[in-house]
C-alpha cells in the first residue's frame, strides 16, 4: 500500500506533477482527473494516482482489472495550448515514455504494440487510455490514463486473458518498487510533453517507432466494422496505422486491436 505522503511527493516537474492527488480507491483515475479538471482554473499537469480502481476502463469500452497493492494506475491531466490534432500525438508519446521508463528502471525489453499497449515478450503488461473533453474556455482537456501490471500475480486475471498478459514481476522474476517506477515514468512523461509543446512531433514519433513491435510485421487488425490483414508498414503523423493489404492498397487504421501474425 502507498502512503499519501510518498505519492504526493514522488515527483515534481515543471508541468507534470505540479500537483499530485492520491486516492486509495476510486472508480477510475481518468474519471477522477476530469472531475478535478472541472473545478480547477489551471489543471495542466495535475496527476491523479490510485492504489485500486473499482471501474477501471480500458480501450474500446473494455474494463481494466485493477487490484490493490500491486500495480500502477494513474492519469495525467493536460490542458495543452495546442490544437486537438497536434495533441493526439500524446497517445504515441505516452507509451514511448512509459516503455523507456520500464526499460531504464527494470532492464526489461518493453515494447509498444500499436497504438499504445505496453508489451514484454509479446505479452501485455500495460495500457494507456487517452480521453479528450472540451474545457469551459474551449481549450481541450486530456486525461492520459496509464495502467501498468507491476507486481500482479498471473492468477489475478481471468483465465481467458491470462495467456496474453504479464506483469513486470513475472517477467523479471522479482518484485519491482512501484514508487521508483512511477517517478521514472513521470520524469519521462514530463520530457516528452515538453517536446510536444515545443512542436517536436517528429522526435516523439521516432521514439515510438524505435520502441514499437508492430511496424514491419504481418498483422490482423480488428476494428468495430471489420477485420483486415496485411503488413503494418508505418504510422502517419496522426499516429494512424498504415496497413498494406494483399491487393497492394494501403488501409489507414484509426482504432482497433492488432494481432501480430508473423
Ligand atoms: C488499454 O490497454 O485498454 C488501456 C488501459 C488503461 C488503464 C488505465 S489505469 C489508469 C487509467 N484509469 C482508467 O480507468 N484507465 C486507465
Number of helices: 7
Low-pLDDT stretches are: none
Strand order of the largest sheet: 1-2-3-7-6-5-4
User: Structural class per helix/strand content?
Assistant: alpha+beta
Shape: globular
Question: What ligands can be seen in this structure?
Answer: biotin
Oligomer category: single chain
Going by CATH, the architecture of the largest domain would be 2-Layer Sandwich
Q: Fraction of residues in helices?
A: 25-40%
Q: Per DSSP, what share of the residues sits in E-state strands of 2 or more residues? A: 25-35%
CATH topological fold name of the largest domain: BirA Bifunctional Protein, domain 2
**Biggest beta sheet summary:** 7 strands, mixed
Helix and strand run: HEHEEHHEEEEHHHEEEEE
The end-to-end span amounts to: 40 Å
What would the average pLDDT be, to the nearest integer?
Answer: 95
Provide the CATH superfamily of the largest domain: Bira Bifunctional Protein, Domain 2
Task: Report the radius of gyration as a whole number of Å.
Answer: 18 Å
> What is the domain total for the residues?
2
Structure description:
The structure is a single chain. This protein folds into two domains: 4-211, Bira Bifunctional Protein, Domain 2 (BirA Bifunctional Protein, domain 2, 2-Layer Sandwich), CATH 3.30.930; 218-260, SH3 type barrels, CATH 2.30.30.100. 27% of the residues lie in helices and 29% in strands. It has helices at 4-8, 29-38, 84-87, 90-106, 168-172, 178-197, 201-211; strands spanning 20-26, 46-53, 72-78, 111-113, 117-120, 123-134, 140-148, 218-222, 227-235, 241-244, 250-253, 257-260. Helix 4 (90-106) packs antiparallel against helix 6 (178-197) and helix 4 packs across helix 7. The longest helix has 20 residues, at 178-197. It binds biotin (BTN).
Amino acid at each position: 500500500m502507498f502512503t499519501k505522503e510518498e505519492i504526493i511527493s514522488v515527483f515534481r516537474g515543471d508541468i507534470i506533477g505540479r500537483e499530485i492527488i492520491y486516492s486509495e480507491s476510486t472508480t477510475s483515475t481518468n474519471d477522477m482527473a476530469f472531475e478535478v479538471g472541472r473545478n480547477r482554473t489551471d489543471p495542466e499537469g495535475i496527476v491523479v494516482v490510485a492504489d485500486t480502481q473499482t471501474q477501471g476502463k480500458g480501450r474500446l469500452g473494455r474494463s481494466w482489472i485493477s487490484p490493490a497493492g500491486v500495480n500502477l494506475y494513474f492519469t495525467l491531466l493536460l490542458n495543452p495550448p495546442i490544437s486537438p490534432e497536434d495533441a493526439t500525438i500524446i497517445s504515441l508519446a505516452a507509451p514511448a515514455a512509459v516503455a523507456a521508463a520500464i526499460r531504464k528502471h527494470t532492464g526489461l525489453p518493453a515494447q509498444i504494440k500499436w497504438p499504445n499497449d505496453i508489451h514484454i515478450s509479446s505479452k501485455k503488461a500495460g495500457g494507456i487510455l487517452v480521453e479528450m473533453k472540451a474545457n469551459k474556455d474551449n481549450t481541450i482537456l486530456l486525461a492520459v490514463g496509464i495502467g501498468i501490471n507491476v507486481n500482479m500475480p498471473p492468477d489475478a486475471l481471468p483465465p481467458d486473458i491470462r495467456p496474453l498478459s504479464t506483469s513486470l514481476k513475472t517477467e523479471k522474476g522479482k518484485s519491482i518498487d512501484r514508487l521508483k517506477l512511477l517517478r521514472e515514468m513521470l520524469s519521462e512523461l514530463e520530457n516528452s510533453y515538453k517536446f510536444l509543446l515545443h512542436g517536436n512531433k517528429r522526435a516523439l514519433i521516432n521514439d515510438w517507432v524505435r520502441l514499437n513491435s508492430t511496424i514491419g510485421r504481418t498483422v490482423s487488425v480488428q476494428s468495430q466494422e471489420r477485420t483486415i490483414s496485411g503488413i503494418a508498414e508505418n504510422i502517419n503523423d496522426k499516429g494512424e496505422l498504415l496497413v498494406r493489404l494483399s491487393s497492394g492498397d494501403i488501409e489507414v487504421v484509426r482504432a482497433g486491436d492488432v494481432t501480430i501474425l508473423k
